[in-house]
Amino acid sequence: MARIAIGDVQGCYDELRTLLERCGYAPERDRLWLVGDLVNRGPRSLEVLRFVRALGDSATVVLGNHDLHLLAVALGTRRTLRGDDTLDAIFEAPDRDLLLEWLLTRPLAHFDAAAGDLLIHGGLVPEWTVEKTLALAREVESALRDDPRALFDAMYGDRPDRWSEDLSGFDRLRFIINVLTRMRFCTADGRIDLRMKGPPSDARPPFLPWFAHEHRRSRDVRVIFGHWSTLGYYDDGRALALDTGCVWGGALTAVDLDDPERPPVSLPCRGYQAPGGD
Fold it and tell me: How high is the mean pLDDT of the chain?
């Protein structure tokens, strides 16, 4: 059995199926880890959702910011589709409700304790341990189950921008969501900047890539993440970045998490959007 981790798919269904074939993936034997952003900007988000949902327990998926955007448009009251969204087919599908219900129950973080691997979409502030991250993710997941409309109506915004245990209510939930699905850069004391989207070399002190802080309390595990196409593939043994910009004309990348000798497999993509975006 292999655990195959794949970066942001974003509706690039044909590329996903081709990449899995090249990896020799067999759902009856292997496990698929997906870093979130299954949907949007690419042409076949509906097919991606149907395919991954049909894999059942063979696929582990965490929510990304585009997945949450889909749910916010579907279940909230304040969000509408943007001009570059490619989600119409999902809303028009006969199995729309089944797909949305399945997506709504995906976690924001998944931890394999035996392997020491944490799967998220965005990042972690330095103060968060793995245990803290999982507990905070569960707070959001509980709110998604209990009252998704209220959460989605309050989810958008860049404030607060610093972690504190004193955060409460929607401010607390919004910060957790922003870190786990949108953040790239932060300071050593947990302040985040969501407007910086370039490569690590663009960081303005005291901001650093979230995984570069020396005293990050999650350094004892390997964090597998996506969301950062301008970073691209990156692996320092403790942080494994897999967003290689498929939808922007880059590549879709897969890694065998259990075989460090096996090189990553990258499939060049045609590109469906102009480079950029969140």
Answer: 96
Distance CA 222, CA 133 (A): 14
In a domain, 223, yes or no: yes
* DSSP alpha helix (H) spans, the chain: 13-23, 45-54, 65-75, 88-92, 96-104, 130-146, 148-155, 169-181
Q: In the chain, how many domains are there?
A: 1
pLDDT band at 76 (very low <50, low <70, confident <90, very high): confident
Please indicate, yes or no, if residue 273 is contained in any of the structural domains: no
Task: For 113-163, write each residue's pLDDT tens digit.
Answer: 999 999 999 999 999 999 999 999 999 999 999 999 999 999 999 999 999
Which residues lie below 8 Å from residue 98, measured CB to CB, with a gap of 6+? Answer: 53
What is the Cα Rg of the chain in Å? Answer: 17
Q: Is residue 37 within 8 Å of residue 12, measured between CB atoms?
A: no
Give SS3 for 72.
helix
CATH number for position 37? 3.60.21.10
Q: Rounded distance, CA 26 to CA 194, Å?
A: 38
53 in a structural domain: yes
CB 278 within 8 A of CB 65: yes
Residue 8 included in any domain: yes
The angle subtended at Cα 225 by Cα 138 and Cα 173, nearest 5°, is: 30
Strand partners, 263: none
The answer, as to whether pTM is greater than 0.90, is: yes
The parent domain of residue 23 ranges over 3-268
